[in-house]
Every structure is written in structure tokens, then in C-alpha cells.
């Protein structure tokens, strides 16, 4: 049997008219988007077809949009009799997509959580300015040392995406200063990430408290396919442990590089990105051991399908 892992993307993969090649003919996509629209109280299909981009990029709308897109692609995979992966994992928000697709979390419950998660995240920026930067080609230890200089936790390592790419986030001025320090210490390249929220930083702790109280009333079951979480790089089966990881995930580092290493340690070298873009696929490009596919459009989906099944 062919072994592979499914990877679900987080915020930042959205764009106007995404999934258009699927939506033209595949009823399952329309049905899932209609179900999401009913649950959320606004027309999600209209939003991804027409925008405006500002609205799609607002976390309150971005997060349910990406979740719905990933779930729709997964359900289409199942409808085509695609085989199950050995593992699932989601980058940040993508963890919710993985939990839905592994039958641990109800789709409508996940929609409600991520909609509020996005709303609370967006609220954080009302009184302050924040910045998110990607640091390319600098050692993790050096970046951590630079971030630790900011004693009030105003700069954090948000995500370790690969050996070569680390994301920092936090207070705008301090992140900018930290990025200059990274340059000084030999970072090859630094660029802004299109987010104005201090994602996965200690500044997000107030949001994690709100997520904790929402999750109290949500039922989570044992995943039918193991889901590797972001904070511990572990597959949890217990409902309380899954919830704790989702709460911590809001302000803790996404350990993506370790997740990919964990999958490889199980002798799995094929990755399938289940979402409307190919960001996670691109992160794997430098890893010569990995074969990576994406499902960003119908052509890519069926290419992946033929290779894996």
C-alpha cells in the first residue's frame, strides 16, 4: 500500500476565485460551501468568487474560508475513492482542517471555532501595530537569542517552517529591529509576511483564553487517522489533550519542520497538500527525500491522485 501524509495549510493561502476549477463542475464543492454559508450566516462562495480581497484577508473570514476549502478538497478525494493517508497534520489553522477530516471534530463546530478565532485575533490589532517577518538562511539558535533580547516577550518565533525558513512575529518596532539584527548575523533574505496579527506569539495569550472557553462546549473524538499537532509534534487521542494543544497553539511556535521530520521518521516520504494553494509543497522543495503534491486546482489534484492511488 502506498504511504503518504496529508498536510493542511493555514492562513495566507487565500485568493479571489480560488478553487474555480473545482467549483465549475463538482457539486460536492458547492454543497460543502453552502453548508458552511448556512452555518456562518453569510455567502462564502460569493466571497471567494468576488472578494473584496480586504474582506477575504480579514481573519474572521480567512479562517473559515481556508477550512472549508480544505474540507471540500478532502471530501472530493474521498468521493473519488482516494486512499487514506497514514498521518494528517495542519499548519496552525490547518490543524482544525485535519481534525475535521480525521472525524475528530464536526465541520460545523470547527467553522464556529475558527470564525471566532479569526475575529479575536483581528481584535488584538485594534490598539497596536504588529509585524510578521520570514527569516531565510539563519540558524534557529541565533534567531532565538535575538528574540530573547526582548524581555517582555514582544518578539517570538512564530513558526519553524524548515531549516531555512523561520517566521518571527510581535510588536512592529521590535520585530523590525530583530529582523535587522538577523540580517547583521547573516540572514540571507528577510521578507514581510502578509499578516498584521502577532501570530503564535506570547501577545496572543488573551486569545488562547477565549479559545479555551469556546472548546469547553465542543465535542472532540479520537481521530480516525492520526493527527500530528503543532505544539508537541504528537498524535493525541484524548479529547482533553487535543483541546489543550489547540489552546496552546495560539501563542506557541508552530513546529512544522519537526512535524515533517516526524513523518519521515515513519518512512513516509510522500506529502499531499490539501488546500487551495501550494505553500506547504514549496516548503518541501529543498528536501531531496520528499515527493510533494498539491491540490490547488483540478489538474494538480488528479495528477496527485494518479500518483498516490
Q: What's the architecture of the largest domain, going by CATH?
A: 3-Layer(aba) Sandwich
Quick one: CATH superfamily of the largest domain?
A: Malonyl-Coenzyme A Acyl Carrier Protein, domain 2
Strand ordering within the main sheet: 7-2-1-8-9
Oligomer kind: single chain
Q: How are helices and strands ordered from N to C?
A: EHHHHHEHHEHEEHEHEHHEHEH
Topology-level CATH name of the largest domain: Malonyl-Coenzyme A Acyl Carrier Protein, domain 2
**Structural class estimated from helices and strands:** alpha/beta
Low-confidence segments, given as residue ranges, are none
Strand content bin: 5-15%
Distance between the termini: 9 Å
Separate helix tally: 14
Query: What's the overall average pLDDT, rounded?
Result: 95
Compute the number of structural domains. Answer: 2
How many beta-strand segments? 9
Helix content range: 40-55%
- Shape descriptor reads globular
Rg of Cα set: 18 Å
The level 1 CATH classification of the largest domain is Alpha Beta
What profile does the largest beta sheet have?
5 strands, parallel
